[in-house]
Amino acid sequence: MFYRPENGHGLPHNPFNALVTPRPIGWISTRGADGRDNLAPYSFFNAVAYTPPQVMFSSTSAKADRGDTKDSVANIRETGVFCVNVVSYDLRDAMNKTSGPWDKGVDEFTFAGIDRVACETIPCSRVAAAPGALECKVTQIVKIEGEHNFVVFGEVTGIHLDDACIVNGAFDVTTFSPLARLGYQDYAVVRDVFSLKRPGE
After folding, report:
1. What is the pLDDT of residue 133?
2. What pLDDT was estimated at residue 64?
3. How is domain 23-189 classified at the CATH fold level?
4. Most buried residue, 53, 59, 94, 142, by most Cβ within 10 Å?
5. Domain ranges of the chain
6. What's the pLDDT tens digit per position in 68-112?
7. How far apart are CA 159 and CA 152, in angstroms?
8. Model pTM?
9. What's the CA angle centered on 59, arms 57 and 65, to 5 degrees?
């Protein structure tokens, strides 16, 4: 099968999301200028550089009460900071509950019953039970093709690790089973890990 996206695929569901998988989930916490916290998952998320450490996520839709975007990007425009919370398998239902198109006045931490703690380097809350979290200051917000498509880049200014996830000096993802996004309504969980040495190592 071959298709051009502008002509459609003819399938019951869009296969594009299922091709680019698995995708890590950035559970993005932000705080607006009004002091209200927001928490929402984004599967267009990844790390993009080591030195300095940097990450990105993209928002691809809008809400009527936020103009051309959603709560996360709107809050980041106001404050210039955000936190990426790592989603463990145990947090899957809470994460999913925060994914709804809730009104901008809804605090998803409270709505989903998620405990929060203050970040150290930025004025923002993070998920207390997350196995890891990345505090970030925004470096760029880039408008890309598409009416509501924005890519947010951030430099990591603080990193939280759950001590229980550090095994023999390494952050061991098998201790918490990170969640990943597949296509459609499907997810995966990382439990099996193997290593490959690069040529010359």
Report:
1. 98
2. 86
3. Pnp Oxidase; Chain A (2.30.110)
4. 59
5. 23-189
6. 989 999 999 999 999 999 999 999 999 999 999 898 889 999 999
7. 18
8. 0.95
9. 140
Tokens of 154: 């951030």
User: Is the CA virtual torsion 10, 11, 14, 18 positive or negative?
Assistant: negative
Cα separation values, 145 from 99, 122, 148, 151, 181, Å: 23, 30, 8, 11, 23
73 CB-near residues (< 8 Å, 6+ apart): 59, 66, 141, 150, 152
**CA dist list (Å): 177 to 97, 171, 173, 182, 184:** 19, 12, 6, 15, 21
Residue spans of the chain under pLDDT 70:
none
Structure tokens at 9: 């695929």
CA dihedral 165, 114, 56, 148 (to 10 degrees): 160
Rounded distance, CA 56 to CA 43, Å?
11
Two tokens at 115? 């405990």
Cα–Cα distance, 171 to 159 (Å, whole number):
12
Q: Considering only CA atoms, which of 164, 193, 187, 159 is closest in space to residue 176? A: 164
Of 182, 171, 170, 177, the closest CA to residue 192 belongs to 177
Q: What letter represents residue 165's amino acid? A: C
Q: Which two tokens stand for residue 138?
A: 């925004």
- In one letter, which amino acid is 74? A
Counting every residue written for the chain, the total comes to 201
